[in-house]
Structure to design on (523 residues):
């Protein structure tokens, strides 16, 4: 279809349906949360039950996410197919360097007239040949030619002839186009396959780190909901205790308002956190190639990743040796140097030698059939020299290749420095994340003791102080979880930056020797 139709009705053709103001918004949000695998029913153990996979939800740990992505992840399948296309291009090019079989049949009907009398002739020529490229330029060919000629206007002799011949021919360049330059397409295609394999493996590692980051962020969103539910439960207890004090006349009525206001604020924050969790869960499902109507549940079985030794020199050396993307840039410098050499070859004179040997049937026999007569052999040898009087385009191409080589050198040097800087930044990020986690855990403990002490002296502590302590505890718990997530991501980023990250065939993380001593990360 030349003009695809568009569906874009005018405003008058559309209908907007306003919501009923009496709708139970809180219940609708609970339904959405349930569809995402979250159970937010009010109960004393709501936070605990939230950590358990709901019925009908597919439970996935981190390795399960990795394995699922290898089966249905659209990004992975696209990258895998790009790699396969590179392999197909190699197979196509290699096929061109193998023996090529051809069979050509020509049918010619010709006529000649004189004073209204016409003679017609029918020529049938069949050429069966096999051609082979030579590794250092040129080609050879063997052909079997069968020719038949029939005059269609009957005469006394009927003028029918049939013959066949075997033809061996070849052509070899000695200057321009000679040498490894003849295999340039095959060489570059096979090297491109190596680059594609490295790119694909690099993608698999980056893909693992990216999926792990999404999974850790989803865990962070869930943990924030757990912390919020705990805080809501604590604030509701405070609200009830404050209401009892007000009824007993022990505190002013506004104290209850402070507690009630904080409970409502915490519930509002819970709605935002649930929405954030649902959005992150659906984005992860889309990346895994799953329908967003099939919720997934999180299993607390995360990677145990010990902090790496903060050695910038060793880390940079590992990256310069192991990084596959840097190896590709380094090897492409050889491609650019080879391109310069090939461009210089284009400036050479053309000097080609060739030859042809033909063994026909007996020319005196009008129906020679297939009886080849070696005695009638004929041959020809040729040599052709063409001096480069006008090679301006080739000279400009050489200059362009030299400029491209200089550019590739600069790009490699820049990439090398960027890799070193990336490793150093990764090491600093690990140290910073570990320090942030230690400080956050200390703050959680301080705020927990502070709140516990105030709760033991609830008769002498005002409501606002209790609310402030509860807020401080919640904020420190969330900060601790964020620091733990940052540390996990930082360690994976370090492994990726140094080229030490390894991925199994099924897409799961392969721990390196020494990682088995990792301590438990969960606080």
């Amino acid at each position: 279809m030349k003009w695809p139709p568009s569906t874009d009705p005018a405003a008058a053709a559309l209908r907007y349906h306003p919501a009923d103001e009496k709708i139970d918004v809180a219940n609708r949000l609970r339904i959405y949360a349930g569809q995402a695998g979250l159970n937010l029913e009010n109960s004393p153990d709501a936070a605990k039950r939230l950590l358990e996979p709901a019925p009908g939800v597919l439970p996935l740990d981190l390795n399960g996410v990795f394995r699922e992505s290898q089966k249905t992840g659209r990004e992975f399948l696209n990258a895998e197919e790009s790699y396969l296309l590179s392999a197909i291009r190699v197979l196509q090019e290699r096929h061109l360097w193998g023996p090529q079989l051809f069979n050509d049949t020509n049918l010619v009907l010709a006529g000649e007239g004189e004073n209204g009398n016409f003679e017609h002739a029918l020529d049938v020529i069949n050429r069966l040949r096999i051609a082979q490229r030579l590794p250092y330029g040129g080609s050879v060919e063997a052909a079997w030619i069968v020719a038949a000629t029939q005059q269609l206007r009957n005469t006394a002799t009927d003028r029918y002839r049939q013959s066949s011949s075997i033809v061996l021919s070849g052509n070899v360049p000695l200057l321009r186009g000679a040498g490894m330059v003849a295999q340039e397409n095959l060489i570059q295609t096979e090297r491109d396959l190596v680059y594609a394999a490295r790119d694909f493996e690099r993608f698999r590692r980056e893909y693992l780190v990216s999926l792990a980051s999404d999974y850790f962020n989803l865990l962070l969103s869930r943990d924030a909901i757990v912390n919020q539910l705990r805080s809501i439960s604590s604030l509701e207890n405070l609200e009830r205790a404050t209401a009892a004090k007000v009824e007993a006349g022990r505190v002013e009525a506004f104290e209850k308002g402070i507690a009630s206001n904080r409970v409502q604020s915490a519930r509002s924050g819970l709605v935002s956190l649930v929405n954030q969790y649902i959005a992150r869960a659906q984005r992860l499902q889309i990346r895994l190639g799953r329908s967003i109507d099939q919720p997934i549940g999180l299993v607390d079985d995360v990677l145990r990743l010990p902090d790496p030794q903060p050695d910038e020199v060793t880390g940079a050396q590992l990256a310069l040796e192991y990084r596959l993307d840097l190896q590709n840039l380094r090897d492409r410098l050889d491609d650019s140097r080879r391109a310069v050499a090939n461009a210089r070859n284009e400036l050479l004179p053309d000097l080609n030698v060739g030859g042809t040997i033909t063994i026909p049937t007996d020319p005196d026999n009008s129906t020679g059939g297939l009886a080849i007569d070696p005695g009638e052999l004929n041959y020809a040898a040729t040599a052709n020299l063409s001096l480069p009087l006008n090679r301006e385009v080739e000279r400009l191409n050489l200059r362009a290749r030299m400029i491209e080589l200089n550019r590739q050198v600069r790009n490699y040097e820049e990439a090398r420095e960027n890799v070193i800087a990336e490793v150093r930044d990764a090491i600093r990020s690990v140290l910073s994340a570990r320090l942030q986690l230690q400080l956050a855990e200390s703050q959680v403990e301080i705020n927990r003791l502070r709140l516990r002490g105030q709760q033991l002296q609830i008769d002498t502590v005002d409501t606002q102080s209790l609310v402030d302590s509860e807020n401080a505890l919640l904020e420190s718990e969330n900060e601790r979880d964020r620091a733990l997530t940052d540390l996990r991501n930082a360690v994976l980023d370090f492994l990726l930056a140094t080229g030490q990250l390894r991925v199994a065939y099924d897409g799961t993380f392969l721990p390196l020797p020494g990682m088995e001593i990792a301590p438990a990360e969960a606080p």
Q: What stands out?
A: Confidence is low (pLDDT under 50) at residues 518-523.
